[in-house]
Batch of 2 targets.
Target 1
Amino acid sequence: MLSRADNEILTRTGPDTLMGKLFRSYWLPVALAEEVASPDSPPVRIKVLSEELLVFRDSEGKVGVIEPRCPHRGANLFFGRNEEGGIRCAFHGWKFSVMGECLDMPTLEPASVPRMCEKARIKAYPAQEWGGYIWAYMGGEDFPPPLPHMEFALVPASHRHVSKKFQECNWAQAAEGGVDTAHFSFLHQPLAESDDQLAERAARATRGYSTQTMGPDHVQWMRDDARPRYEVRKHASGLVLGASRRASAGHAYWRIAQYLMPSHGYTPSATPGQTYHGQTWIPIDDESCWVYVYSWNPLRPLTDEEIEGYRSGGAVYPAMDDQWMPLRNRSNDYLIDRRIQKLENFTGIVGVSEQDAAIQDSQGRIADRTRELLGPTDIGVVQFRRLMLAAAKGVAAGTPPPGVESADSYRVRAGGIVADASLGFDDVMRERFGHALGEF
Amino acid sequence: MLSRADNEILTRTGPDTLMGKLFRSYWLPVALAEEVASPDSPPVRIKVLSEELLVFRDSEGKVGVIEPRCPHRGANLFFGRNEEGGIRCAFHGWKFSVMGECLDMPTLEPASVPRMCEKARIKAYPAQEWGGYIWAYMGGEDFPPPLPHMEFALVPASHRHVSKKFQECNWAQAAEGGVDTAHFSFLHQPLAESDDQLAERAARATRGYSTQTMGPDHVQWMRDDARPRYEVRKHASGLVLGASRRASAGHAYWRIAQYLMPSHGYTPSATPGQTYHGQTWIPIDDESCWVYVYSWNPLRPLTDEEIEGYRSGGAVYPAMDDQWMPLRNRSNDYLIDRRIQKLENFTGIVGVSEQDAAIQDSQGRIADRTRELLGPTDIGVVQFRRLMLAAAKGVAAGTPPPGVESADSYRVRAGGIVADASLGFDDVMRERFGHALGEF
Amino acid sequence: MLSRADNEILTRTGPDTLMGKLFRSYWLPVALAEEVASPDSPPVRIKVLSEELLVFRDSEGKVGVIEPRCPHRGANLFFGRNEEGGIRCAFHGWKFSVMGECLDMPTLEPASVPRMCEKARIKAYPAQEWGGYIWAYMGGEDFPPPLPHMEFALVPASHRHVSKKFQECNWAQAAEGGVDTAHFSFLHQPLAESDDQLAERAARATRGYSTQTMGPDHVQWMRDDARPRYEVRKHASGLVLGASRRASAGHAYWRIAQYLMPSHGYTPSATPGQTYHGQTWIPIDDESCWVYVYSWNPLRPLTDEEIEGYRSGGAVYPAMDDQWMPLRNRSNDYLIDRRIQKLENFTGIVGVSEQDAAIQDSQGRIADRTRELLGPTDIGVVQFRRLMLAAAKGVAAGTPPPGVESADSYRVRAGGIVADASLGFDDVMRERFGHALGEF
C-alpha cells in the first residue's frame, strides 16, 4: 500500500516529475531498429515519457531522436523528406541533422543563414542502435552514461529475438507483474480433471510456453504451492528476486527473476541451456506503455521454430497485428472464453502475455495503490516500489541513480532451478548461476 | 423552469448527491435476470448511479451485486472465475461471496487468513431477482426496505415480458417524457390526406402500438386536441396523472399515467383487458441511462405474437441489437427519413420508443431547465419535478422517501378510458380502476 | 512570432472573444446553398464560430439561420418538420419562422398565445443566399452591412463553381497558408531527374493544377528561386501580397494574392483569361474550420471539364466524400507515400489542397506562434497577423472593421504575371490588373 503522494511519484513520468527524471537518467529503448530499417527510410513518430518525438535514420545510417517541430513555423517534421544527411521540412525546406543541427534554410538570404542556424537548432536526444532496438538518452547531461550491458544485446544477433507490444495501462503495474512471480499459480494455471492432463492443458493455456520451460512436475508444483517463499537481494543495478515452492521430497523449485533499473525485468523460468526472456516497460504516457520484449540464448542461435513461435504469439509474446497491438486487448476483453475458464484454464484467456495484460489492465489505467492488502507473496512488489521511490527521490536530491554509470552491473541472469530444500537463497544462486547475485 | 441549482439536484445521481441518495433509498432494477441466467454463469459488468459494479449468480443461484475491485491488488473481479460458491480473482485466487465476504486467500499463511479476511470484505449491495430483473438496494442501511409490489412482478412469469434499452441522455428528461402525455398529439402523430388513412398511418408510425391500444377514433381525438386538460393527484408512492381530450359528443378521452418513486412510469393507453406497459429509468451515469421496459397482462398470459412484437421492436420497445442498443440512435439521427416526415408521420422516425428517444436525447445530454416556457400541458412535468426535488431534499433532512416502506403502495394501475364528459377526474378513476388513485 | 496573448486573440473566435467579435462584424458563408436546396427541404445542423445553429429554407424559399433550441422544453428543432412557412418542433408542435418568430403554439390556450409568442422568439441571424453559398450575419446590430461584392458572387452562376472542405485545424494557420506564397517552392514541388520531366511531375503532384496555371518555365522558376521578394499593400478591405521570383533573363515572375476581411483569400497564379480561385476560412470551433472554396471566370462559363476536375479533386479542391471530408486527411496521414516522396514530389502526398492541409494540420490543432523563427519570406504572414490583430482590437475599441461598410472594396483580383524585372510592384499591379491594388 502506498500513500497517494507516493503512488503519484511511482506512476508519473512526464518531463517535470520525479520518476520522469529517474527514467531520463538511463538509456531507454524507444523503437525497434527495424522500424527505421535503412538509411533515409521514413521517419517514425514515437511518444516516450509523454514527449512526442521523431526517430529517423540518416543517409549514413546514423539514428536521430528529435523534437518533431520545425522551428520556422512549427510544421511537423514527420511529413518532411529524409534525404542526403538530414530531414527537410515539407513546408519551406529547412533541414535538420540527427543531432538537431539546422543544415539548410533555403528561404533565407545566404548571409543570414549562419546566425539563424544557431537559433534554429532543435532538441535532439543522443540515440544509438543496440541489441535490435533504438535507444535514446533523454537526460539533460552532455555526456550520456554507457549503454547497459544486458545479455540480449551482447550476444550475436542470431542468438536473440526482439519485439515490442502495446499495453493499455501505466508502466508500473505492468512492471509489478514482472516481479510478482507468485501469480503464476493462478493467472497462468491450467485446470484439469486429473494430473495426467495438467501438462497438456498448461501448454495450451500458455501457448506452449510451459513446455519450453517446465516439465509436468513443475506445473504441478506451481499449482500445489500458491505461497512461494520470497527472497530479495538488492544489487548495483536493481534487484534479484527468488521465490521457492515445495517440489519433490526434499527439494524446492526456485524461480528467480531480475529487475534492472529503470524498468527491465527478466523472467524466472529458464533452466541452464534454455532461452531467456526479458521485458522492458517504457511509458508512452502515464496511461499506456510499450513493453519491449526480447529473448536470447547465450549458447546458440535461436531456432527457426523458436522465432516463428515468438512472431505468431507464444512465450512472452502475444499474438499481434502489424502495429504491435495485441489481438486480445482491452477493447475485446482479451477474447475471454468463459467455457474455457470453466474447464481448461483459470482465466479463459489464451497466452501468458495476454493473461498478464488482462489482469494488469484491469487494475485501472493507473492502479490505485492506496487501497491494497499486501501479504508475504507481495514482497517482490514491495521491494520494487521501495527501490523505485528511493531512486526517484534520490535523483531529485542529487544521488546518482543505481547502476547508471556501470554498464557491467547489467551482466546478470535470471532463471529457475530445483535445489536441495535445505539450501539458502545465496547457495541456490551460486548453484544456478555461479554467483550469489546472478552475475556472469 | 428550474434554477440551475435545482436542475443539478434533479439530474445528478452519483454517490454524494441529493438525488443519488434518494435513488439509493429504493430497490432498483440493475440488470435483466437473463443476463446472469444460471448458477456460476459469467459475471456481468454494470454501472448504476455512476458506480461500477459486478453482478453474478453463485453456485446456489443467489445473486450478488458487488464492487468489482479485489482488495488484494485491485484487479477487476470481472476476469475472475465464478466457481463453487463465489467469484475467485484471476490474479492470486482470493475468493468472494455474493455478500462480499472473503472466502479464501490462498496466498496467505492459513493462520493469518481469518484476521485478513475480515479486512478483505468488499462492498456488496443486497440483491434479489424479482419480476424478471435483478434488483439491488444501494442504500447504506442494514435492513433494506421491501421490494415494491409493482403488478408486472406480481403476475405469473407467463403474463409478462421484460427487457431494457439504452438511452443516451440524463434519466430525468427521459422520465419527463413518461409523465408528459401531451406530446402524443405531435411526436407520435401520423400524417394523412384523409381521416380514412389515419389509423393505418398511425399503426405504421408507431409500429403497431396504436392499433394495440386505440381505435381509429382515438387516433383522431389525439390529433384533434393538442391541449389535453391535466389532473394530477399525489399518492403514497408517487403521482397519478390524468389528461383528457375531447372525444365523441359528450365524451372525453382520458389517458392516465402513473409515476412511482423513484423512477417508474406506467403508460396511459391500456383499456381494461389490454396489456399494460411500464418503464423504469435507471441512471448509468448522469449522461445516459438504462430504461427497463416491461409489459404485463393481469388476466392472461402474453401471446406469442405480443412477445415477438416486443422482441423485434414495437409498443414501448425499440428495435435493438443483442446488447440492447436501439438500432435507431443518437449516432445515426434515429434513421430519420425526411420524405416520411413530409408525408406519413410527424417525425419521419419509426417507432414510439425511437421517437421518444430522439426528442429526449435532442434536449442535450442533460437538459437545461433554466430556460423553458412551460404551459398548462406541462403540469405533469412540473409536478414530477416538485415531487422529486422535495423527496431528494427530504431525504437529506431525514424525511422518509415516499412509498419506500410500503410495498403495497405500488399496487396501482394506469390506463385509458372514454368517459362521460361531465365526470370529474376522481369519478373517472373510479370508473376505470375502481379506485380514485388507481389502486387494485 | 506572437505573444501568447496575441496568439489567443488571433485564434479564438467563440462568442465572447475579440476575434469572434471581428468575424461577427461581417457576413460569413455558413453553408452551401445546395445543402438547403429547395423550399421546405430538410434543416441542416451547422456550427459556426463555436455556435450550434440550424439552417433551413422555408416554403417561400427564404433562408433562416437560427438557434436550434425550442424555447418550450429545449428540444432540438433539427428533428422538427419544415412545413408551411416555418419549422415545427417535433415534441409539441411550436413553430418558428426564418426570422425566429414563434408562429404557432398549439399546446397553449389561444388567448395566451400572443403574449407567450413574444417570449418564445428564438435567436435568428440575418441570412441570405449569395454566390452559391448561404451567408449569415452573426453580429448584434439591427442593420447588417452590405454583402461583399466578391467577383465570384457577381458573375453569372454558369461562370463559377463553389464547394467547401473540412479542415482539422484552427482557421488562422490555414489562412496563413493562403498569404504565404513562398511555400510553393517546397510543399507543392515536383522532383525530377531532368528539367524535361519537371512539368509532367508537377502536373501529377498537383493533380493538374500546375498545368492549368503555369507553363514548364514557371515550374522551374518556382523550384529555382525559393526566396521570393515580398511586397504587401494594405487596402480598404484587406491586403494585396505580391511575391516575385527570378524568371527568364530580365524578367520576374510575380504571384499576387489578395486577403480580404475577415478571412477570404484569392490564389496568386491565374494569368489573364485563366479561371480564378478563392478560399474562405470559417471557424467551426477553434480546432477545425470549413474552407469555402470557389472558382470563377469573369470572361466565360466554366467548362464541363473544369467542373468535373473540381468535383473529383484538382486545383484548390481535394478529393472528398459526400460530406465534404477530404479522403486524404489527418486520420490517414493524407495517404503519404514515402516512395513518391523519394522520387516524384516533395511531400509524397497528391494534390495541392491535400499538401496544404497536411502541413497546416501538422502545426497542431492550434499553431503555437510563441516559438517561431520568421524571415523575409514570411512577410505576408506577419502582415496578415498585424491586420487581424489590429482589426480585432479595433472592434473592441469601437473602430469600424476594415471594408465592412463598403461592398465595392471587395471588387479586387489576384493573379500571376511575368513582368520586366525593372518594374516596381505598383507598376506590375497596373500592368496585370490595370490598378495598383487590383481593383476592377
Target 2
Amino acid sequence: MTGHPTRSSALLTDKYELTMLQAALAAGTAHRRCVFEVFTRRLPAGRRYGVVAGTGRFLEALADFRFGEQEVDWLLADGVVDEATAQYLADFRFSGTIRGYAEGEIYFPGSPLMVVDATFAEGVVLETLALSILNHDSAVAAAASRMTAAAGDRPCLEMGARRTHEEAAVGAARAAVVAGFVGTSHLEAARRYGLTAIGTAAHAFTLLHDDEEQAFAAQVASLGAGTTLLVDTYDVTQGVERAIKVAGTGLGAVRLDSGDLGVQAVEVRQQLDALGATGTRITVTSDLDEHAIAALASAPVDSYGVGTQLVTGSGHPTCSMVYKVVARENAAGELERVAKASASKASVGGAKNAARALDARGRATGEIVAVGSPEAVAAWEAPGRARPLHVDLVVDGEIDTAYTGAEGVRRAAEHHARVRAELPLNALRLSVGDPALSTKVVDLG
Amino acid sequence: MTGHPTRSSALLTDKYELTMLQAALAAGTAHRRCVFEVFTRRLPAGRRYGVVAGTGRFLEALADFRFGEQEVDWLLADGVVDEATAQYLADFRFSGTIRGYAEGEIYFPGSPLMVVDATFAEGVVLETLALSILNHDSAVAAAASRMTAAAGDRPCLEMGARRTHEEAAVGAARAAVVAGFVGTSHLEAARRYGLTAIGTAAHAFTLLHDDEEQAFAAQVASLGAGTTLLVDTYDVTQGVERAIKVAGTGLGAVRLDSGDLGVQAVEVRQQLDALGATGTRITVTSDLDEHAIAALASAPVDSYGVGTQLVTGSGHPTCSMVYKVVARENAAGELERVAKASASKASVGGAKNAARALDARGRATGEIVAVGSPEAVAAWEAPGRARPLHVDLVVDGEIDTAYTGAEGVRRAAEHHARVRAELPLNALRLSVGDPALSTKVVDLG
C-alpha cells in the first residue's frame, strides 16, 4: 500500500466531523446505520463530462485512517473531543461497505459516485478525506482528459508540479495519467505510482555554461544523443543548428518553451529536416491547455508538455462533489430516506446504483440512476444493454487493493480510455456545452 | 520542526533537476557558484498586490531535503541518475545562503522574492520544491488577504479542505491564517501549526436524528449552549425558533449555509432579538468570496466561513513565480550576470535586494529593487525611509527556525497585517486594477 505510508490520514479531517461524532455518541445515535453518497449537482460551467479520479488514493488513505496515540492525545489536549469520543477513535477501524464508480469512469450531475454504507460514526468521519481526494484528483483528470482528447495520438506529458502544492503534485500527476497522459516530470509521483518519469534540462543548465554549445555537449555526453535539448535560451535557429552539430542527426528531440509554438515548430521542423535530422522530434511546453493543444494539431509537433493549466484543472481547479447522508436508521431501527430541504442545495434521498445505457453499437445514450433501499439497489439489474457503473471498493471493511497503487492507476487509465470511447462524439468537443448524457432516475420504491 | 516529519521531501522534485545535476557533475560545472532568484513577471490579471506565503513551509521542507537510502536506490533502479550522481545525492546537505521577503510580505511583479546563493548543484535541485510551496501558499494568501480586507473587523474562518487536495488543505489553512483568517476547520492544519480549530455540525447531524429538535438537543447536551447550531436543514425560521427553545437565549451562534444570506441574516437577526437572544451570533458559510463578503458588509453577520474560493485562490489558484539562475561563476571563477534572451520570458540578470519606499507618514510609495553582485546587493542600504524587504532565511546551510512552525505562522500573520496597512488605500479595492506600487530598478553595477 503506497501513499502516506508513515503518517496517519485521520486528522485530514474537519473538526465538525468529530464534534458531531461526540454529540451522537452521547445521544446514542452514533451507531445508527447510515448511507452517505458522494455526488455533484453540476459539472463546471460548459463542461460535457466529468472524470472520476482519486479512488485509489482514497482507498490508500482509508487504510491509514487510524487515530494513533499521537492523534488522540492532541485531540484531547486541544479540547476537540471528550474522553468517550477519544476512546471510540482509538479503536476506530472502518468496517462498512463502499461501492462506487470505478476510477477513470465518466460521470454527470447526480451520478452516485460513491456510496458509503456504515454507521453514522464510521461514515461521518470520512467526509473531508473522501471529498478532498476526489474533488482534487477528478478536477485534474477532467482537464487532462480534454487535453489527451485534443492531442489525439500525440503523447501528453505532465510537468505542473511547480504550479501546485508539492503533495498535490503527486495526486495531479497520477490523475493526469489516469486520463491518458503518458508520463510526468515529478519523481515522487513516478516512484509512488510506477509512472514514467520524464525531463532532461532547463534554461538554467544552458546559462550555467560559458556558451550554448558547451551546455549541449555536456548534456549529450551525460545523457546520450537520444536526449531532448532545450533550444530557445538565446536564438532558436542557432540553438537547433548547435544541437545537431553537437548531438548529430540522431538527436532525440528538441524542446521549445517560448514564443509562437506553431510557427516555430514549422520552422524548426524544416531546419531539422534540412540538416538531415528527420527523426529528431519536437516537443513543446509553454503554457499549454486543451485549446492550445487543439490549435497545434496541424503543426509538426510530436508531444506536449503541460503544466499550469493541467494541475489547476484548466479553469476549474476543484469539483463540486458533496458527501451527503441519503438514508439512515430511525429510532425504530428501520432505514429511512432523508434529504436536506433547502431549495438551492436539495439532494435526492435514498441509496443509489447506476448504469450507462448503450445502443446496439455500444455508444452511450444516457445515465440511469436507481434509487431505493441499499439492498434493492445492490440487487438492481440495469435494463437492456446498460453497463453497470458501481464496483465494490470496500466490503465489510476489507479494501479491494486491486484499485490501489501502481496497479490501480494502470487499470483506471485503461478504464478511462475504454469508457471515453463510448461517449457520443460531441462529448469530446472542447467548446462550451451541456452534459453529454442526461440522467434518468428509476425509483425502486 | 513540523511538516513531513517522517518522509524525505527530496523527491518532490522534477526529474530534469537531477539529470541537469548529473550532466553538470560530469562536465565539472556543477560546483560553480550560482545565484537563483524566485520572482514573478506579473500578478494575476487585475490584482493589485501579491502576498508571500509558504516561506516557513519551504524551510521545513528544506530541513527534510535528504536523499536517504530508499530514495537513492529508487533513483538508480529507475535509471534517473548514474552512480556518481547517486553518491553526490546521498551526501547532500544544502550549505548555501537564502535571503528573501519575509512570509506575509506584500510583493509586486519583479520583486526578488527569494535569492538562493549556492553551487549550481545545491541550488538547482530546490527549484520545484520552492516553487510548489511558494506558488500554492501565496495564491491562497493573496485571496485570503482580499477576503480579510473586505471583512474588516469580522472574523474569517477557513473551511475549504474538501475542495482541495488533502495535504494542500494544510498549506491552504496555514496561508489563510498568514493573511488574517482567525481559524480553520482542518484538524491537521491546527495541530501542525498551532491554529485555532473551529466547527460544530453539518446537515448530516440533523438528518441523523428523528427531528431537528432532537438533533439540536443532542448537540447542546454534548457541546454546550455556546455551540453553533446549523438552522437551514428544513426551514430557517422554524430552525431558529427550535434552536433558542433548546439552547436558550445564551446560544452561541446560528449558521446559515444556503439561500440569500444577506436577506436571511436580517430576518434571523430580527427573530433572534425578538426571542431575546441578542447575544447569539450569526455566521454565514455558503460559497463566499471577497466580493460576497463585501456585499454582506451592511448585513447583520458576525463571521464568515470561506471554503472553495479561498483554497482555489479566488480565480487564481497558482502564482506564476519562477526560479531562475541570474548569476553564475564562469570558467575563470568570476561571477557573471546571466539571463534567458527569449522576448516573452526575459528575466533581469544579477543578484538582487529590495526595499519598500515609504513617505513621511509611513505610507508605501514604491518598490525599489537593487541589482548587482551578491556582495554589493547584500551591503546595499535602501535610500531615505525605505524599509528593507530581505531577511536571512538560511545562512551557510543553517535554517532560521524562527520562521518555521507555529511561531513562524504567528510572525507572518503579524507581519502581513503591519505591511498591508502601509499600502496606499486603493490597494485594497477589490475591483480590477494595476499593481498598487510600481517598481524602480537600481543597478549597482
